[in-house]
Amino acid sequence: MPGAILNPFRVLLLVLLLVLAGCHREPPPPEPVPVQGKVVCGSKPGIGVLVKFWPQGKKLKPIETACGEKGEFSLSCPPGSYKVTAWLPPRASAGPDPSGGKVAAPPRTDPVSVVIPDKYGRPDDTPLSVEVGESGNGRVVLTIPK
Fold first, then answer.
1. For residues 70 and 47, what is the distance between their CA atoms, to the nearest angstrom?
2. Global pTM?
3. Which three-class secondary structure state does DSSP give residue 3?
4. Collapsing DSSP states into helix, strand and coil, what is residue 121?
5. Separation of alpha carbons 93 and 60, rounded Å
6. Domain residues of the chain, as ranges?
7. Which residues have a Cβ under 8 Å from the Cβ of 59 and sit 6 or more positions away?
8. Which residues contact residue 17 at a Cβ distance below 8 angstroms, ignoring those fewer than 6 apart?
9. Are 55 and 83 contacting, i.e. CB atoms less than 8 angstroms apart?
10. Distance of CA 10 to the CA centre of its chain
11. Residue 90: which residues within 8 A CB-CB, separation 6 or more?
């Protein structure tokens, strides 16, 4: 009965196919693209504001940057949807931000010129969001009302 005994080659081939079917790798994340923007608090530029992009639906780390003299920022991140948090670091000392990360900018020494409500510093509560396109975003304006 040659049909009753399995050929060792066929068994090995079957095992190899089952193993390969179980080996699924996550595709690498898309290449980062440039994002430039500005934070406006009321009618004032968000000087010294820390901005953090939180990826939605992806297993990527958040990306953080600090706003410069005109409230402008730039960063690179993969295309996709992001929740965005914004907060001012403490004036006297650097420490953890409200979302648990480390401060990316030195402590502020400028006089407080803007106030940001606490909800903008929490990824689950912030109303700010950005959709980053395949070629990046030329000019994102994040507006925080008074």
1. 6
2. 0.70
3. coil
4. helix
5. 29
6. 33-144
7. 26
8. none
9. no
10. 48
11. 107, 108
Cβ-proximal residues to 136 (8 Å cutoff; 6+ apart), any chain: 33, 34, 35, 79
Distance CA 56, CA 82 (A): 5
DSSP secondary structure letters along 5-52: SPPHHHHHHHHHHHHHHH--PPPPPPPPEEEEEEEEETTEE-TT-EEE
Query: Each residue's pLDDT tens digit in the chain (146 positions)?
Result: 455 466 787 877 777 776 666 666 767 778 999 999 999 999 999 999 999 999 998 788 999 999 999 999 999 999 999 999 999 987 654 455 555 555 455 544 455 568 899 999 999 999 999 999 999 887 899 999 97
Record: fold of 33-144: Immunoglobulin-like (2.60.40)
Whole-number Cα distances in Å, 68 to 32, 37, 40, 46, 97: 21, 11, 12, 8, 18
